[in-house]
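Quick one:
INPUT:
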C-alpha cells in the first residue's frame, strides 16, 4: 500500500490529485469540532458578520480530544460519526471549508457539496485514538471553551493517517465497497449471516 504524504494548508490543486481510497499521512493544522460546536457555528452563520473563525481553506476533524494527562499535549483523539454533522456541512463547504475528517458515510447532499466545492472527506481510523494523539504537536482552544472536550481547537498534527473516503470527483469509498460486494455476490451472504 502506497501512502501519500500531504502537508496543509490544502489547496484545491492538492485535493484534485487525491483519489477515493488513497491513504494519506497529513501534517499541518486542523480544527476539531463536533455536534455542539457545529450547532453554534450554524447559528452564527445566520447572523451577518458573525463568525467564530474563518472557515476558508480549513480542515475540520469531527473529534473531541480527551483531557491531556501530565506531560501530554492532548488526550486520546478519535473520529466521531460524521453523519451527525451532515445538516451543517453543505453551508460550511460553501463558506470555504476545504476538508473534513471523521468516520462513516455521508449523505447525498454532502457528497454533492463536496464535488461542487472541490473539497474532500477523509475517514480516520476508529479505535486508535491513543495513537492519533501521538501525532498532535500543539493544541489550543480557539472557540467555545465552555463546551469542554467539544470546544473548537486548533491542532497541529504530524503524520495523521487518513483515507480519502469521498473525493472531489464524487467518488465514495463506502458506496464503492458495497458495490464491490454486490458484484461478487457476497453482500447477500454477509447480510444473511449478520
Amino acid at each position: 500500500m502506497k501512502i501519500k504524504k500531504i502537508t496543509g494548508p490544502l489547496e484545491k490543486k492538492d485535493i484534485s490529485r487525491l483519489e477515493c481510497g488513497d491513504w494519506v499521512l497529513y501534517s499541518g493544522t486542523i480544527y476539531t469540532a463536533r455536534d455542539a460546536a457545529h450547532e453554534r457555528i450554524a447559528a452564527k452563520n445566520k447572523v451577518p458578520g458573525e463568525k467564530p473563525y474563518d472557515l476558508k481553506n480549513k480542515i475540520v476533524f469531527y473529534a473531541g480530544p480527551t483531557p491531556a494527562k501530565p506531560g501530554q499535549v492532548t488526550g486520546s483523539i478519535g473520529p466521531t460519526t460524521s453523519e451527525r454533522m451532515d445538516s451543517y456541512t453543505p453551508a460550511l463547504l460553501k463558506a470555504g471549508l476545504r476538508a473534513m475528517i471523521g468516520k462513516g458515510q455521508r449523505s447525498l447532499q454532502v457528497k454533492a457539496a463536496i464535488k461542487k466545492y472541490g473539497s474532500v472527506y477523509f475517514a480516520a481510523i476508529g479505535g486508535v485514538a491513543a495513537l492519533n494523539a501521538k501525532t498532535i504537536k500543539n493544541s489550543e482552544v480557539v472557540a467555545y471553551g465552555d463546551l469542554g472536550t467539544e470546544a473548537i481547537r486548533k491542532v497541529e498534527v504530524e503524520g495523521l493517517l487518513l483515507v480519502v473516503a469521498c473525493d472531489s470527483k464524487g467518488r465514495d469509498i463506502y458506496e464503492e465497497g458495497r458495490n464491490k460486494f454486490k458484484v461478487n455476490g457476497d453482500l447477500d451472504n454477509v447480510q444473511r449471516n449478520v
